[in-house]
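With this grant's support, we have settled on a layout for protein records. An illustrative entry appears below exactly as we store it:
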Amino acid sequence: MKMCCLLSWVSCKRERPVSTWPPSLSDFGASIRAYVRHLGLYGQYSPKNDTPKFLSVLDQLPFLTGITFDYAVKGVPWFVVQRCLQLPNISSLSFTSMSPWLIPAPARPWVEDTLPLPGAVSSLSHVPLTTLSYATVCWRELKERPYGARLPNTEDLTRAYAVEARGLGALVPAIMDTVQTLRIPLDTSPVDAMCQGMWPSLTNLSLRGAYGHSMRVDIIPTLLSRMPRLSSLSIEIAQPPSHSRAPIFGSGIPIGCEHLQLRSLTVAYPDPEDAIFSFVGVDLLHLSLRDWPRFYYPLRGYVFLRFVAPILSASECLRLLTRMNTPNLQSLEVVYRVDNSNADDLLLYHIATTYLQLSRLEIHRYRAEGDDSVPPYHHISQILAPMASRSLRFLRLNLDFKHMPGPLGNRRRLARRTSLGLSPAHPTLLECASAIITTVGVEHLGLLMHDGSVSLWDQYDLRDGECVIDYSSWYVREPQL
């Protein structure tokens, strides 16, 4: 069976992998089992064949506090979720974007393709979870994909949405009093119920997905007003054509949000006039003004079904950042499109001279429409050069090269990759990386590449004054949508 179990042991405070599933816990003895705190299931989880084994493992781990399902593509049965919630010490449940919930009809408990029927999800009372993560992908919202890849049809999407809505509708209201970290999709969450109560313990909120068909786009300000202790906020919601930049705070600070002290803020397709950017201040350590779904997908052949991608212009991004009083930023991501060279330079100068404690910087700079020239990476490097003598260690750049090296076929031929030219008349990728990393002086540089249908960060290091490709980590995928 293609699955492994990941056990976290408090005695050594690190994760130790076990290569077989189910794990042979009898080999460790009862004294060792008492130290197991986190159980991770990775691989092809079969609801019919693996569930009895998994439940037997749960019975042998009396002090288990967290469970993660990763890549359980056939689904995790709802009664398994309920069994996890019955464990006396469980406080954390996580489901990756490839581990959907499965709520089949009660009469056919092992059939994986039936729509949930009434009664398939029992109501839950108070559940003392502190962490719930249920991730989804945006691929199901794409109309078509390159190379003939097929997506689920409308009926499949209806089934997936129905299952998520029923599961989240039962679980989310039951954890409102205790949950501290919540990562859920907005479009299938019980938003109306979430806005009716208070979230006294919630400090970390991450919303992804899209606005539901009948959902108000101003629901986010109402929801945030119910979360007085929020310190980390991530809003990565695909924007509907009817409202291309939906509000976070809106035009004013919502009642109940006056005392929030955000330390981390991530917003996809932000409105530069939103009041939240004037509200956050010196406590903010991480800021991401990004795109989700990523803007380079429609540029590379993907067609969004019902989303728009209104990334900031350089002028808008500069205006937004200058409104903010965030001198203590340690991590920054910006996504913008060049509207004029002056605004582009001013934005980069602002970043290079304002954030003196920045250790991580990620810039996605898209060329102006109709501009087919090679991005001025020498000029960009010179503007960012003042950061070399300060704390910047990690730099990632998506410079939107028009002539991007295409699929390599055999990705192990790394030497061939670095020798490919950006166009017949322009430098190789390694020469481009060398010019940037030696001028800016960072330890680690990532350049975003598009290899077929996969987006990758090619990693470069500065060693003894020379730029070299990091063969151990050069192949790093973008976070999966």
Remarks:
- The chain has a mean pLDDT of 77.
